[in-house]
């Protein structure tokens, strides 16, 4: 009886490590990023749909465009079988939190716009925070054709 490892022991250890990997379903996270991007587009369009002040138009247009671009960037990364950028998702969280509080700081022009902006901000913050958390905890997906 020898304590030297055999090939079968090395194979089982590699299989155990593969079983314990924290993999991420990039398709699900990709759709989550797409949903946040759509919320960003809604924020851009909402001041032109509802009565809005000039300040609300600028706020929602700029912040909504930022959310759309950030979520779109993570969508593209995930579509290429890479993890989403935690920093980009975290910045989207901050923009979402700004949208949540901005109706209290800026005169929005109508209560419908204020409610829609705050709800969009809450949804953006929650979804982007989950995106950042899940991608931070996940191991990098296996790449097709990667060299060992």
Could you explain how this protein is built, in words?
- This protein is 74% helix and 0% strand.
- The protein has helices spanning 7-19, 26-49, 54-79, 86-105, 111-137.
- The model is unreliable at 17-22 and 143-148 (pLDDT under 50).
- This is SPW repeat-containing integral membrane domain-containing protein.
- The chain crosses the membrane at residues 31-50, 56-76, 83-101, 113-133.
- Residues 31-129 form the SPW repeat-containing integral membrane domain.
- Shape, principal axes of CA atoms: elongated
User: What structural class do you assign from the helix and strand content?
Assistant: mainly alpha
Order of secondary-structure elements: HHHHH
Helix proportion: over 70%
What does the main sheet amount to?
none
Poorly predicted tracts of residues: 17-22, 143-148
- How many individual helices? 5
- Could you give the distance between the termini? 32 Å
What assembly state would you assign to the polypeptide chains in this entry? Answer: single chain
Write a brief structural summary.
By secondary structure, the chain is mainly α. The protein is 74% helix and 0% strand.
Give the SSE map.
Layout: H1 7-19, H2 26-49, H3 54-79, H4 86-105, H5 111-137
Helix pairs in contact: 2-3, 2-5, 3-4, 4-5
């Amino acid at each position: 009886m020898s304590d030297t490892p055999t090939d079968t022991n090395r194979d089982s250890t590699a299989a155990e490590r593969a079983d314990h990997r924290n993999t991420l379903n990039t398709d699900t996270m990709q759709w989550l990023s797409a949903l946040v991007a759509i919320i960003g587009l809604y924020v851009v369009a909402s001041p032109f749909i509802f009565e809005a002040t000039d300040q609300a138009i600028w706020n929602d247009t700029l912040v909504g465009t930022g959310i759309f671009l950030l979520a779109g960037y993570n969508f593209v990364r995930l579509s290429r079988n890479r993890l989403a950028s935690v920093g980009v998702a975290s910045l989207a969280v901050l923009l979402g939190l700004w949208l949540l509080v901005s109706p209290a700081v800026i005169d929005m022009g109508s209560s419908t716009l204020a409610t829609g902006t705050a709800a969009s901000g809450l949804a953006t913050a929650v979804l982007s925070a989950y995106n950042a958390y899940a991608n931070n905890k996940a191991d990098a997906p296996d790449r097709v054709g990667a060299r060992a």
